[in-house]
Amino acid sequence: MNRRRKKPKADMTQSVKQKLSQFDWHSYVQKVRELWTRLPKFHQRALTALVVVVALLLFVPLPSPSSSDSAPALNQRVEVSINAQGLSEQTISGQVALKSKAWKEYQVKSGDTLSQVFRNNGLPLSDLNALVRVEGADKPLSYIKKGQLVRFKLAADGSLDILQLDKGSHSVMFFRLSDGGFGRSK
């Protein structure tokens, strides 16, 4: 059971009119004029200009954005072209792929250094520098020997993709990472 008493609804327009009629407009205007005359002429002019500018900005309509420049609505369908061909099936037109699917091998000769091996096979020396950074403590790149087998594969751009150094019973492999650097197998 609700024991609250309903308040009588007052007419809002009547109450606003009543409040405005009680307000003493004449004394308020006199106070504003008195404050205005105390201001220096420069400030009076600046305030007058400022009031005009603000009034213009309030009443001048802003240009509506054109429909051609705006982005599509959230629920609007947009046509998107998709290449449904698999990556392995795609060919780059006008470009011959340099990638070899077969490994290339080089047998280290007496007095060869790894930089000479790279030069003899047309491999970029920048890749050699990147390999040396991840060489490891056992230094397999620094200590190559006569008769050792160096195997490598090239990437599509002609840079080194995989390098394998065979050392008797085991081998060390260096491979290109997605960031362009190299990683090493254990």
TrEMBL record:
Domain of life: Bacteria
Domain (Opacity-associated protein A-like N-terminal) ranges: 35-61
Residue span, Opacity-associated protein A LysM-like domain: 103-186
Protein name stated in the entry: LysM domain-containing protein
Gene3D superfamilies in UniProt: 3.10.450.350
Gene Ontology molecular function, alphabetical: peptidoglycan binding
InterPro entries for the chain: LysM (IPR018392), LysM_Opacity-associatedA (IPR007340), OapA_N (IPR013731)
A Pfam family of this chain: OapA_N
